[in-house]
């Protein structure tokens, strides 16, 4: 599987698994199955209501166009609201991110959505598939224009679930200084730590622990492999109900 290599501000390199072509095609099929179901349901609803029997063609066209908006903007709306995922992408556990691994912006989601016209519809999906196969970071034309790609998030989801399972109501916060970290900081720490574990690279864990100590202005009494999970758990515990 292709990978997206990132060099973080902490000068620690880690990697994301890029979404496979199969996963992206299946996600697309699911999403457009939902869109087509919506179109059919809407048409049948208008037909059975007798609205389509009216003689005012402009009114009919206007109503049909208005009713079609949720389907037309489906991808843009959901990727924006669900942080780079649609229903299909969530089921396939993939998501859109910037090429540096961070969350994409609305503008980037918009560019990808507009590019569907060329990537998918005008070329019957051919250009999009060809671009994904040939580009280094598995980017379709819309991704190239928006500076985004699609990654596999299965490992991230597993890590998040594991961390929450380990936190109990009696958890004692060891480092209250974690309030100075943002959700984005902790997510990045979590991702780097998980990659380091999967690659069995203790050097990355040590470098990460050192950087976190500097950020929080503390000196850990724990081993780096114990210190980082504790920081993540403390943050989750403090903000679990917020």
TrEMBL record:
Main location: membrane
InterPro entries: RDD
Pfam families: RDD
Topological type in the membrane: Multi-pass membrane protein
Keyword Membrane on entry: yes
Alphabetic keyword roster: Membrane, Transmembrane, Transmembrane helix
Residue ranges of the TM segments: 25-46, 58-77, 113-134
Location in the cell: Membrane
Domain RDD: 18-146
GO cellular component, one term: membrane
Protein's UniProt keywords contain Membrane: yes
Protein name in UniProt: RDD family protein
Organism: Sphingobacterium alkalisoli
């Amino acid at each position: 599987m292709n990978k997206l290599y990132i060099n973080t501000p902490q000068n620690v390199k880690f990697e994301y698994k890029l979404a496979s072509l199969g996963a992206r095609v299946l996600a697309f099929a699911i999403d457009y199955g939902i869109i087509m179901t919506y179109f059919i349901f809407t048409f049948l609803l208008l037909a059975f209501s007798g609205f389509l029997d009216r003689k005012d063609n402009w009114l009919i066209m206007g109503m049909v166009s208005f009713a079609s908006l949720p389907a037309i903007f489906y991808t843009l709306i959901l990727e924006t609201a669900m942080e780079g995922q649609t229903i299909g992408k969530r089921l396939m556990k993939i998501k859109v991110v910037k090429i540096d691994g961070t969350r994409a912006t609305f503008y980037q989601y918009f560019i990808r959505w507009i590019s569907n016209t060329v990537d998918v519809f005008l070329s019957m999906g051919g250009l999009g598939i060809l671009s994904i196969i040939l580009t280094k970071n598995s980017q379709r034309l819309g991704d190239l224009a928006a500076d985004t790609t699609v990654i596999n998030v299965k490992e991230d989801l597993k890590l998040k679930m594991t961390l929450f399972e380990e936190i109990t109501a009696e958890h004692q916060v060891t480092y209250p200084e974690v309030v100075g970290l943002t959700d984005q900081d902790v997510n990045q720490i979590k991702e780097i730590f998980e990659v380091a574990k999967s690659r069995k690279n203790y050097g990355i864990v040590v470098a990460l622990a050192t950087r976190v100590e500097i950020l929080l202005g503390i000196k850990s009494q724990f081993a780096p492999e114990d210190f980082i999970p504790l920081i993540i758990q403390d943050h989750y515990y403090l903000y679990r109900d917020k």
